[in-house]
Design brief:
The complex is a heterodimer. By secondary structure, chain A is mostly beta strands. Helix content of chain A is 0%, strand content 49%. Chain A has a 5-stranded mixed beta barrel with strand order 6-7-8-10-9. In chain A, strands 2, 3, 4 and 5 form a 4-stranded antiparallel sheet that branches. Chain B is α/β, with parallel strands linked by helices. Chain B is 35% helix and 20% strand. Chain B has 13 helices and 12 strands. In chain B, strands 3-2-4-7-1-8-12-11-10 form a 9-stranded mixed sheet, sandwiched between helices. In chain B, helix 1 packs across helix 2, helix 3 crosses helix 13 and helix 6 crosses helix 10. The chains are: A mainly beta, B alpha/beta. The interface between A and B is large, with 46 and 40 residues. Bound molecules: zinc ion. Zinc ion binds next to loops of chain A.
Chain lengths: 143, 392
């Protein structure tokens, strides 16, 4: 696995994978109208879809930042974080494949973020779990 | 369809009422609305209730049944409507239809809420198929962060500053302090707003609404029935309900499609446009607006998205006092959610109470001079939007 992989366990299985080309989000794409979905979907919700089947698709790693926010207080369950709590940055990222994805932003000084800046997908630690060890989730960092 | 009027409106004040049940709050609101209308409970033919999932004696969102049982079980039909924070507007739309269709002459619409402490948590279901659970588990994004995304995007697009946002909160309390039903009746300076804790950067504590307890009710009547009671009826010119359009750019789970253009909050925009069209009212004809200001951001964004003002004009309007009751486009002369806090299912009806009082000219220091046409709007979980136009 790449340098961001720490041998941890995905927080939820089936949402992302480390591939030969790097980290990817695992979703679906409609064969009828091309609409992308994350996570995987079984039906297309596009009201003008001519009809199609949903096929497996992998998304990322390149995206641009649409907006961001700093989570200044510890979020209520089921959100996870390591004690003691330290604020993290959240982002909405537009992927080249036409998906707007919610994620944590990593290695990012909020003061240097700008809408439209290039970011890239990484698989990175979310928190340590007492029984499952290091939990990984998808995140983005400045490209 | 028949003409429908708001014959009576009543509220329980907003706040925290530890020792009072939500049914007791609703009793006070309905009793006030009935007294205002000059009708007795036994004359009411049907009830439309904004149903709560947070509170209520029977649970299961049977809020209307609790109210009917408490006021006297007359056997009337009860419609329990659930639409998240848009439930009040949704119940109002159904109540109006019950009268407009000719099914009933006198209908009570009620919403009441006692909310648990802290910010509203939207899920609670531990199921990986639930998008909200998955989002909180994998990313951790409570509601205020969602508003912070929108606020930050506006800063990037329009150059909105933190002081512009704070100015909306200052203005809200400037007018809300005159409202006896408001929970927070204290003025703040711009510096005090900016010095309040950052909840979700860039939004401060005084720029987002907390949760509250409260209840509001209205009595709807056919125009014909109303003639027995008043010569100056408040007319329901339109009541619209809409849901979000596919791909409007706000992820409701982990992701959405990237939209073609700027189409945020499509459910609210659609409901408002439809209401104005049905009422035959142009954007410049609206004398006042009660909109859902869970955060200061909405007070800047919504009027532009609905075509009431030009894109990017809102900050200047707030700075120039044009959204005050005496300004060109008064927004939330009640004080809005910022001064009331949010008692989710009651919000849509508190807005109707404010419009009714404004159109009657009963609002004292926060009165919009010669108000004739008022617009109210709610936005609720699940992509629910509602809008109401009242006129005199
Ligand atoms: Zn499709």
């Amino acid at each position: 696995m790449a340098q961001d992989a720490t041998g941890g366990t995905p927080v939820v299985e089936g949402l992302f994978a480390q591939t030969a080309d790097g980290p990817r989000l695992l979703g679906s794409r409609c064969s009828g109208c091309g609409t992308p979905y994350f996570p995987r979907a079984s039906v297309c919700n596009h009201p003008e879809c001519p009809g199609g089947t949903l096929e497996s698709a992998a998304f990322g790693p390149a995206g641009t930042l649409w907006s961001w926010a700093v989570q200044n207080y510890p979020p209520p369950p089921p959100a996870r974080y390591d004690e003691p709590y330290s604020p993290y940055t959240l982002g909405l990222v537009d992927l080249a494949e036409g998906l707007r994805v919610l994620a944590r932003l990593r290695s990012a000084d909020p003061a240097r973020l700008r809408a439209g800046m290039a970011v890239s997908l990484v698989l990175a630690p979310l928190c340590r779990d007492a029984s499952r060890g290091e939990l990984l989730t998808w995140q983005f960092e400045p490209a | 369809m028949r003409d429908v009027v708001v014959l009576g409106a009543g509220m329980h004040p907003w706040g925290k009422f530890e020792s009072k049940s939500v049914t007791a709050l609703c009793r006070d609101a309905v009793s006030a609305a009935l007294a205002d209308a000059g009708v007795a409970w036994r004359e009411v033919e049907a009830v439309a209730a904004a149903s709560s999932r947070f509170s209520g004696g029977k649970g299961w969102g049977l809020s209307g049944n609790d109210v009917v049982e408490d006021l006297g079980s007359t056997g009337v039909p009860v419609y329990n409507l659930s639409a998240g924070c848009a439930a009040g507007g949704n119940a109002f739309a159904i109540g109006r239809l019950l009268v407009a269709s000719g099914a009933h002459d006198l209908v009570v619409v009620v919403g009441g809420e006692k909310l648990p402490k802290g910010f509203i948590q939207t899920s609670g279901v531990e199921d990986l198929n639930d998008p909200e659970y998955l989002r909180q588990l994998c990313v951790g994004m409570p509601g205020p962060a969602f508003w912070a995304f929108l606020a930050r995007r506006r800063m990037e697009e329009h150059g909105t500053t933190e002081r512009d946002f704070a100015a909306v909160a200052v203005k809200a309390h400037q007018v809300g302090k005159h409202n006896p039903n408001a929970r927070f009746r204290k003025e703040f300076t711009l510096e005090e707003v900016l010095a309040s804790p950052l909840v979700a950067d860039p939004l401060h504590l005084y720029e987002i609404c907390p949760v509250s307890d409260g209840a509001a009710a209205v009595v709807l009547a056919s125009a014909e029935r109303a003639r027995r009671h008043t010569s100056r009826p408040i007319r329901v010119a339109a009541s619209a309900v809409a849901t979000a359009r596919f791909g409007d750019g706000i992820p409701r789970g982990l992701a959405s499609v990237v939209p073609d253009g700027p189409t945020l909050h499509s459910e609210a925009a659609r409901a408002v446009r439809e209401a104005l069209e049905t009422a035959g009212v142009g954007p410049r004809d609206v004398d006042l607006v009660e909109l859902q200001d869970n955060t200061v951001y909405y007070e800047l964004a919504f009027p532009e998205e609905w075509g009431l003002v030009e894109p990017g004009e809102s900050e200047r309007m707030v700075a120039a006092g044009e959204t005050l009751p005496t300004g060109r486009l008064p927004i939330n002369p009640s004080g809005g959610f910022l001064c009331f806090g949010e008692a989710t299912t009651a919000q849509g009806l508190f807005q109707i109470c404010e419009l009714t009082a404004q159109l009657r000219g009963e609002c004292g220091p926060r009165q919009v001079p010669d108000a004739r046409i008022g617009l109210a709007q709610t936005l609720g979980l699940g992509g629910n939007g509602t809008a109401v136009v009242l006129s005199r």
